[in-house]
Amino acid sequence: MVDLNKAQEIVDHYSQVEGGLLECLHGLQQAFGYVPKETIDIMADGFNISRAEVHGVISYYHDFRLKPYGRTVVRICQAEACQAMGSRALSAHVAKKMGIDVGKSNEEYTLEAVYCFGNCALSPNLEINGKLHARVDQDNFDELIKKEGAV
Amino acid sequence: MIKVYIPRDTAAISMGADDVAKAIASLPEDIHVIRNGTWGMTYLEPLVEVETQKGRIAYGPVQVSDIPSLYKAGFLDGADHELCQGPTAEIDYLKNQERLTFARCGLVDPLSIDDYIKNGGFQGLKRALKLSEKNIIDDVMTSGLRGRGGAAFPTGIKWNTVLETEADQKYICCNADEGDSGTFSDRILMESDPFCLIEGMIIAGLAVKATKGYIYLRSEYPLCKVVLNDAIRTAKAQNYLGSSICDSDKEFDIEVRIGAGSYVCGEETAMLESLEGKRGMVRAKPPLPAHVGLFGKPTVINNVLSLASIPIILAKGGEYYKDFGIGRSRGTIAFQLAGNVKRGGLVEKAFGITLGDMIDRYGGGTYSGKNIKAVQVGGPLGAYIPPENFDLPLDYEAFSEAGAVLGHGGIVIFDETADMKEQAKFAFDFCAIESCGKCTPCRIGSTRGSEQIEKGNLELTEELCDLMDTSSLCAMGGMTPIPVKSAMKHWPKDFEN
Ligand SMILES: Cc1cc2nc3c(=O)[nH]c(=O)nc-3n(C[C@H](O)[C@H](O)[C@H](O)COP(=O)(O)O)c2cc1C
Ligand code: SF4
Fold first, then answer.
1. What is the distance between the alpha carbons of residues A55 and B193, in angstroms, rounded to a whole number?
2. Which residues does B395 contact at the CB level (< 8 Å), separation at least 6?
């Protein structure tokens, strides 16, 4: 169950902030791990905009999700500096190892594409549960996911 | 007590700097670990420095497993070791740079306002507080500073427009979205010398009579958020921000706002929409943000490094800054060596060094040891440049004459295994993913372009490129043809099916 009182508190806070909808969404996502659908009405009320507008903002940005993440979240860079160091092959390996495609999610795993962590002198980069790892190759990924993954 | 410096920098941490710091702190000696910023020699991270009578001695890249042998060799006295790089200041990579904007990065504890002040910090602000708005802007005009975010528009002219626009409220928006792959100089500046950005923003506020600043920071930079907010708190507590800056009658405040993973929100009007809590749709210009910007008010939008170059310009005068560089590209720019490169990192140099010199002298060739095939300069919307053209000087005009883009100074190196058809297709794919969707050439054209490349229909691709170039609303659609066309022009073999 989503704690709607908590959601209300977050919305009350950020609706007082000028242009605060993105901050609010980040706040909700931090509290719940995702943006629960039940909070859309609360936001529409709090910010005095339509539900469609709230939805429009959520769907526009890659960062916001309406569904919970898997227990282990891997975010892998797909941009040029990582491509130059073999991120295409690495991504394929990671997808195979985790058993899902980039951009997909299940209860256990979420595998997301990111376009640049700003660590381009040490590519390829990926993040496991919020921690950034540089110079990742197929072998050390297998080690990392064992060590840092939630399972 | 022995002082040991270990960077608190995203790159260093991604290579294990936190564990190294813990391990060194637990050695049985009287050690004071300082988490400094990075010098930008990323290939040596984690770079550990020990303060000795001979100055700071550098060791890198250090892993936890190296610490026993370093300790045994006597690194705490600055002794030799296979990882020893000698005195930090003497390392070629660093010694031959012209560090103006990044002068303090690596040297200081980023969160120590005393360190900042001891090393020239707030000199520019002190001077600006004594000048009229017009005189501050004159200095910025004299410096020749052009926006470091990509478009290279003269900063002084932009500021002047905002100054001359009457309004009850004006804003300074710092563009810290740094979306280009191959760039990390904004990140380094914010993590390693946050007070420098804060000082630059305050001065911008004084110059145009704005009292509120926002930093639009990409969500992929969580450490920057922590560091900036910490620095802002300190600056407030010490009266550099707030309602009476340095006991004057001037006020200025800064708030950090976090983006949400959209590349096009680095485009300045999309950024404004996003700051207002909306979808990041590009606005048509005019009106210019300098007239009608954030929340409808006159707004200065500048890149992190444009703003971080202001303190030294005000401290030393516009002429000092202008003396660096060539032609109409004045001062210094932070180049970032990235991708398949042996010595990746940040190199601040005066404009004018050639691309080849940058890659050979600093980068040292590829990481893989194979030959270089292509270099993409200026981010995902920049041209792919073949080795035949490496004599190109790194200068805005020279690059645009060659159909290339200097942009935010990112240099991504690819070795001979790169498939340029794949890279061209990716340029379209990236545009399709990141397009804000406001105009058709970009929204639809990017997807069609990707398909045509896949099919090997080069003539149609060319036509589509011309269309996107001439009829897109912003540079996202308008410049996507640059990497595509450069790849087709220089590596036609890669496109034969
Ligand atoms: C698609 C796109 C993305 C951009 N991304 C950034 C960015 O991440 N950071 C930045 O400073 N400028 C970016 N720009 C340039 C900005 O629109 C704007 O020119 C700049 O922030 C102005 O600041 P400056 O004059 O100090 O460079 C981008 C432009 C486009 C078209
Ligand atoms: S060119 Fe693309 S990103 Fe720019 S306004 Fe048009 S659709 Fe939006």
1. 38
2. B325, B326, B327, B329, B351, B352, B406
Q: What tens digit of pLDDT does each residue of B325-375 get? A: 999 999 999 999 999 999 999 999 999 999 999 999 999 999 999 999 999
Residue bearing the CA closest to ligand 2, atom 1? B477
Do strands A109-114 and B384-385 pair parallel, antiparallel, or not at all (unpaired)? unpaired
Which alpha helices (H) appear in B4-97, and where do they start and end?
10-14, 17-25, 67-73, 92-95
* Domain end call among B359, B381, B415: B415
B-facing residues of A in 7-26 (CB < 8 A) are 18-26
| Residues carrying CATH 3.40.30.10, chain A | 72-147
**B398 and B353 both lie in a single domain:** yes
Residue A115 pLDDT grade (very low, low, confident, very high; cuts 50, 70, 90): very high
Its domain, for residue B274, covers 113-322
**Residue B100: inside a domain:** no
**Cα B362 to Cα A5: distance, rounded to the nearest angstrom:** 56
* HSE value, Cβ hemisphere, 13 Å, CA-based, for B96: 8
What pTM did the predictor assign?
Answer: 0.98
ipTM: 0.97
Q: Which ligand is nearest to the CA of B443?
A: 2
Are residues B443 and B378 both part of a single domain?
no
Class of domain A72-147: alpha beta
- Supply the pLDDT for residue A151: 47
Among candidate residues B307, B322, B337, the one where a domain is terminated: B322
- On the question of pLDDT at B22 being above 80, the answer is yes
Is there a single domain that holds both residue B175 and residue B279? yes
Nearest Cα neighbor of B429 from B273, B283, B263, B265 is B263
Give residues (CB < 6 A) around ligand 1: B 147-151, 153, 175, 177-179, 264, 266-268, 301-303, 306, 474-476
In this prediction, residue A150 has a pLDDT band, given cuts at 50, 70 and 90, of low
What are the pLDDT digits (tens) for B124-161? 999 999 999 999 999 999 999 999 999 999 999 999 99
